[in-house]
Design a protein that fits this description.
With 365 residues, the chain is α/β, with parallel strands linked by helices. Helix content is 33%, strand content 26%. The protein has 2 domains: 112 residues, Rossmann fold (3-Layer(aba) Sandwich); 203 residues, ANL, N-terminal domain (Rossmann fold, 3-Layer(aba) Sandwich), CATH 3.40.50.12780. It is globular and about 55 Å long. Its EC number is 6.2.1.3.
Amino acid sequence: MSIATLAEAAATSFGDSTALVTATKRYSFRELWNTAESLAAGLYLHVLGRQPRMIVVSSEGEDMILPLLAAHRLGLDVMPINAATHAEVVPHVVPRDALLIHDGEKPDWHTGPAISASRVSELAQSSGTSLGRTRRRSRIILLSSGRTGSPRAHVTRPVGYGGVRQLASLHRRIGIERGDSVLACSPLHHGHGLQLLASCLFTGAQLVYAPHATAPERLDLMRNEGVTLASGIPSHFSDMADILESSGAEPPSLRRVVCSAEPLTEALVSRLTDIWGPVVLNAYAMTETGTVTVASPEQVAANPGTVGFPLSGVEIGIVGEPIHADAEGQIWVRGGNRTVITNDYGRVIDRQLYVDSPAVNRELT
């Protein structure tokens, strides 16, 4: 199952309900799929010359989401990147013959074919109705964060039974439902951002995609789009809490606040609870596996530092220790159809994971 399969099914199931809100546009589920399919036809006929090649997307908003869906519709590998963050690595991991979709001027580091993000809208006017089915199975290639070492390219694998279980467990644990409006502060070149997109397509929830918005802009989006669930790193929510506390303004109503990717301190949990109530979840995720554990608000309150229990289809443990044993040391994770030994150290207590420090991960399989 691919992200395009989810988008196509969502177009049939959820039709004219709002699927995606960005800084400049909004799409229903039907419009999102039809636009992605039209873009796929435009790329195939007018840019790729009917020749398969990887598509690399270095853009923002719908200009990253639509090419991602279009590439999957064509069965092509796709790599969403942040070229600024990975400036030293990108020239070495992007194939020379890949098609680069970029903002602004074409970057000097890519000598292969490229189009500007402004052409995406033009190409999306193509007719996708006659586009044939492909037998190729596309993959998403993500760059690891490289917090303590050089980022590396990681190929996601097709979402089999284990991946579907993990995704379904994530949206149950977080509580994403049809009718929700989900603010995503994580970009698509992060595994958690991709999982949020997939969860919204899976459930019919609205995705408000705002990875580059400021704290005031995110608060405005929460109010204007009726956001019920917000997901981001703790510093995002700390910035928003600063504004609300200093202004004394009424906070927008949220029923879930999902933190990940940074340590969540007991002090910040207390501040967010004062603002929104006991709604704070803490997740553990990595590029290679996506989100693998989620701590409920009750677990966050009772066990400071916990990132919760594994999702369905996920196993966690300490290197050199029996699976499910209480232990302390280097963490390993099996999820997202792969196994990694992380450079994170922490503890497993009663199958609940506590992470002491984030680091970069080493792939095993």
